[in-house]
Design brief:
Elements lengths: L5 H10 L1 H36 L6 E6 L19 H10 L3 E16 L2 E10 L3 H4 L13 H5 L4 E4 L1 H7 L9 E4 L2 E8 L17 E4 H8 L6 E6 L5 H16 L9 E5 H44 L1 H9 L4 H36 L3 H4 L6 H27 L3 H6 L1
Parallel strand pairs: 3-7, 4-6
Antiparallel strand pairs: 1-8, 1-9, 2-3, 2-5, 2-8, 4-7, 5-6
Helix pairs in contact: 2-9, 2-11, 2-13, 3-8, 9-11, 9-13, 11-13
Length: about 400
């Protein structure tokens, strides 16, 4: 039950105009800090994750390297040579591997008419599409099992090299010359963000079937292979099994970790997630402390208002108002005051986030995202600040002695 009319409360705030404005600005700035910092952190994290996953999500890239331990009569320093069958055996003997592709690589010229470009050519298996996020544009496709089995002379183009070769035409179904051999384009990659790579960005890659690569270029040994686990949290276990299987097939000690060069992107993802968790925690704490400082300003303002209304509160108590009504009255006023500052700060954060998302800054900062979690957490924090800030002034008002209050 409210015992103070809204109009009288607003007049009291107006009488303390400078305190009221500074209090609202403190709460507003604290809210802006909490919402804005977390929104920018979320946007940056999402952008970095998407760019990192442009190379592939949850994949491991492995390169045959040199042994560093003597094993079964073989000396250390032996270069491992791996063929398709060695890689494909992993898919048969390690059930937890979901996708797998050997990969052959070399620089070569791709020609169409008078346009000649030197770029990376990769001989791969069909699983490479999902592993490396090489989604084709509508109207085209990636390399399939039949292409591999029949060693077809077909290729899949990165979006940039496709634009360079066919600036004014749809490449699908047309021919290009690769290593003096005609190839038919079966698909073009959808543009994607990517900031991680090995051997260059996918936008400039040309993929052909691994079987065709061996026939055209004469390569026998794979340059590397790519795989992913069915469950990313099991990637470390799968890597151990990969060493075991290849150790038996290639005669090296499975404990010799330098025998294979590994890039485990799941570990990168975990590290990145921990960094951003720490960063957002610090941002949230910084904003929360700012908001709590604003709460001190609210408490101070409410103490002043209660002191000004001492006689009025004494009269209300004398004519029958109960102490809990006074307590409730002051608490509601405090929460409304904090809520008003919170709405102003939230609105400012939303405007800034929207403007940044529409500007060129989004290319480097990402799109700031105010999620439901951020909004809900801010509301709870504002409510807590309001209740804490209003409790002590409200308790003081409720405990006033009516006789003493009327004499003051």
């Amino acid at each position: 039950m409210l015992v103070t009319p809204l109009s009288e409360w607003l007049l009291s705030l107006r009488a303390q105009r400078s305190r009221t404005i500074s209090t609202l600005m403190g709460i507003g700035w604290g809210t802006f800090a909490v919402v804005g910092l977390l929104a920018f952190g979320t946007g940056l994290q999402k952008q970095m994750r998407e760019r990192a996953e442009g190379m592939g999500s949850g994949i491991v890239i492995a390169w045959p390297s040199r042994t560093t331990q003597a094993f079964r009569g073989f000396p250390q320093g032996r270069q491992l040579l791996m063929v398709d069958e060695d890689v494909l055996a992993l898919g048969e003997q390690v059930p937890e591997i979901e996708r797998l592709s050997p990969e052959y690589s070399r620089m070569a010229q791709v020609q169409r008419g008078h346009s000649i470009f030197r770029t990376w050519i990769n001989g791969v298996y069909p699983d490479y599409e999902s592993l490396r996020q090489m989604t084709p544009l509508p109207g085209g496709r990636f390399l399939n099992r039949q292409d591999q089995d029949e060693a077809r002379r077909v290729l899949f183009l990165g979006d940039r090299i496709a634009t360079q070769l066919f600036p004014d035409q749809d490449p699908v179904g047309r021919q290009v010359i690769l290593a003096e051999v005609p190839f038919t384009v079966v698909g073009v990659m959808q543009p994607k963000p990517q900031d991680s790579d090995y051997g260059g960005l996918d936008e400039s890659r040309v993929c052909i079937p691994a079987s065709t690569f061996r026939r055209v270029f004469g390569d026998r040994f794979v340059d590397n292979f790519v795989f992913s686990a069915r469950h990313t949290e099991r990637t470390a276990s799968v890597i151990n099994q990969v060493y075991q299987v290849l150790g038996r097939r290639l005669d090296f000690n499975p404990k010799d970790r330098d025998a294979l060069g590994l890039w485990d992107t799941t570990e990168d993802s975990r590290v990145r997630a921990m960094i951003f968790l720490a960063m957002k925690t610090l941002m949230g704490l910084a904003g929360s402390l700012t908001l709590l400082v604003g709460g001190v300003g609210v408490a101070n303002l409410m103490f002043v208002l209660v002191k000004q209304r001492t006689s009025e509160i004494g009269l209300q108590l004398a004519v029958g108002a109960r102490p809990r009504w006074i307590l409730y009255d002051v608490m509601v006023q405090t929460v409304v005051l904090v809520g008003t500052g919170g709405v102003l700060g939230f609105a400012a954060a939303w405007v800034v986030a929207t403007l940044v998302g529409m500007s060129p800054l989004s290319d480097s900062l990402g799109y700031p995202h105010i999620s439901l979690a951020i909004g809900g957490g801010t509301v709870l924090l504002l409510t807590l600040v309001g209740l804490v800030a209003g409790y002590f002034p409200a308790r003081r008002a409720a405990r006033l002695d009516p006789v003493q209050a009327l004499l003051d």
